Amino acid sequence: MIDFDIARAWHKIFALHIEFVIDGIEKTNLNPQLVCDDMVCHLGRWIFGPGERYAHRAEYADLLEAHIRFHYAASAVLEARQAGITESQLDSFRAASDAVLATIDALASTAGARPPSARRETAARKQKRDHKPSRQESMQIGIKLIDEQHSELLKWIEKLNGQPTAEITSKSVADSISAVQRLETLHFETEEIFMQRIGLPPEQMAEHVAAHGRLLDQLAQVELDARNGICNTAAEAHRAIKDQVLCHIVQYDVPLSRHIADPQ
Ligand SMILES: [Fe+2]
Ligand SMILES: [Fe+2]
């Protein structure tokens, strides 16, 4: 069911952001007091927005509670960050995050699946189809979650461009490449779930999944080239990674918009 997949993916990306901050990869100053608020993330807004249609179910209450606990755990690890986070604090945070995913699964399994007739063309979608897109718009798929993941991914790739002469082995460059790699992994997982749910023909699905594998291999190659002195600066890594990702979005992801109607 697509909206549960979206809820899951929103949660995973938020949890990954917290991990980025904890690891020091993301420099954003996330305020622990704000993170305590369970409406600060997309999943929270889904729970109290479209997700409310399941409010009569016990699993909805479980999700709501697990989600509040997760935000407290996230806030606690951010708070503890200055003093140094212990393994048990990190374990509690990850367990709270997993509990949210488990309650989403439980709610999804009792809520029943919606058939893929979500492909109905809405007036807004027709207008979008008829509209001649700008270059940036032409990279959009029309699924908010996937489009935001793409721009997040491209934002991290651009960070390499912001430090063009930095040695590829420097910590800041290695951190950016690590962030790109973790985001790519999560994003590919999201897209592959979507492709399964919309019933993409198996050969198209296999081709797309193989292309994701090649992108991950390419990142590993960039790291290998860095170690072997073939690729020395952030600018070289930036060019290599960005070209491949943009080509992939245009060649493989944008055509998905023909198959998917955004359920949000
Ligand atoms: Fe893709
Ligand atoms: Fe993608």
Question: How would you portray this structure in words?
Answer:
- The protein has 264 residues and is mainly α.
- The protein has 2 domains: 113 residues, Aspartate receptor, ligand-binding domain (Four Helix Bundle (Hemerythrin (Met), subunit A)), CATH 1.20.120.30; 138 residues, Hemerythrin-like (Four Helix Bundle (Hemerythrin (Met), subunit A)), CATH 1.20.120.
- 68% of the residues lie in helices and 0% in strands.
- The protein is built from 10 helices and no strands.
- The radius of gyration is 20 Å and the shape is flat.
- It starts with a helix and ends in an 11-residue tail after the last helix.
- The relative contact order is 0.13.
- One fe (ii) ion binds next to α9 and α10.
